[in-house]
Structures are given as structure tokens and as C-alpha cells.
Amino acid sequence: MVDRLELLLADVAVTYPLVVLEAVGRLESMIERQAPPAGVAARGQGATREEIGAAVNATWRSAYQRWARHLPREVGADAPH
């Protein structure tokens, strides 16, 4: 699905650059809202920090630093030391 979206955006990027930029901005906002609860759910289902980081193409520390402010306090136990 993500690969198809990228191809679609690439097809129209030159012809409709503002449309693509708006889509990218909306996707970034959606990611900021959806990634933290998905990460918490993944941990709750037994995913490791490393698996979660790999899923977002980052190290677990980088993913944690990006979204830590959205996480409930008890998940803070996963904080990098």
C-alpha cells in the first residue's frame, strides 16, 4: 500500500506539486498521531523495542525520542538509559 502511494505521488509531483505537498503534510500529521498508540500496542503484543524501531526504519532510541512525549507514563520504563 505504501509503495503504491509513493508511486501515485511521484506520478503527480511535477504536474501538481502543491497537491503532493499537501498530501505529504497530511500524512506526516497522521503519522505523528498514529505512531505512538501503535507503538504502545505493539509493545503490549510483545514486540521488542528493536522491532518497533525497524518497523519505522529507525533505531528504537530514535523512534522513542521522536514520540516519547505522546506515550503514557508507564511506558516511560522503555526510555533509553
Tags for this entry?
mainly alpha; 4 helices; 81 residues
Briefly say what this structure is.
The chain is mainly α.
Which helices and strands occur, and which strands form pairs?
Layout: H1 2-12, H2 17-44, H3 49-55, H4 60-67
Helix pairs in contact: 3-4
Order of helices and strands: HHHH
Instruction: Describe the largest sheet.
Output: none
Oligomeric form: single chain
Query: What portion of residues belong to β-strands?
Result: under 5%
Q: Mind telling me the C-alpha Rg?
A: 15 Å
Give the tally of β-strands. Answer: 0
- Quick check: average pLDDT? 86
Q: SS-based structural class?
A: mainly alpha
Can you tell me about this structure?
By secondary structure, this protein is mostly helical. 67% of the residues lie in helices and 0% in strands. The protein contains 4 helices and no strands. The protein has helices at 2-12, 17-44, 49-55, 60-67. α3 crosses α4 (60-67). The longest helix has 28 residues, at 17-44. The chain is elongated and about 45 Å long. It starts with a helix and ends in a 14-residue tail after the last helix.
